Amino acid sequence: MPRRVSAVLIILFALLLRPATGDEGMYPITELSKLNLKAKGLQIPVSEIYNPKGGGTSLIEAIVHLGGCSASFVSPEGLIITNHHCVFGAVSAASSVEHDYLTHGFLARTRAEEIPARGMIARITEEMRDVSSQVLAAVEPGMDPLARAKAIDGRIAELTKEAQAKLPGKTISISEMLPGQSYLMFISTTYRDVRLVYVPPRSIGEFGGEDDNWVWPRHTGDFSFVRAYADKDGRPVDYSADNVPIRPRRFLKVNPNGVNEEDFVFILGYPGRTYRHQSSYYLAYEEEHRMPWVADLNQWQIKTLEELGKGDRAIALRFDSRIKGLANTMKNYRGKLDGMRKLGLTAARRSEEAALQKFVDADPARRAAYGTVLADTARIYEGMAARFQYEMTLDNLVSMSALLRAASTIVAAGTGAPATTPPGRGANPFASYHEPAEVLFLQKIVSMAAGLPEGQRIAPIDRWLGGDFSEENVRRRVEAAVAAATVKSQEAVAAAIKQGPDAVARSTDPFIALARDLAPLQQELRDERTRRTAELNKLSALLLDARQQYLKKDFVPDANGTLRFTFGRIRGYSPADAVIHKPHTTLDGVIEKTRDEPPYDTPQTVRELAKARDFGRYRLPRTNQLPVGLLYNLDTTGGNSGSALMNARGELVGVNFDRAWAATINDYAWNEAYSRSIAVDIRYVLWVTEKVAKADFLLKEMGIGG
Question: pTM of the entire structure?
Answer without folding.
Answer: 0.90
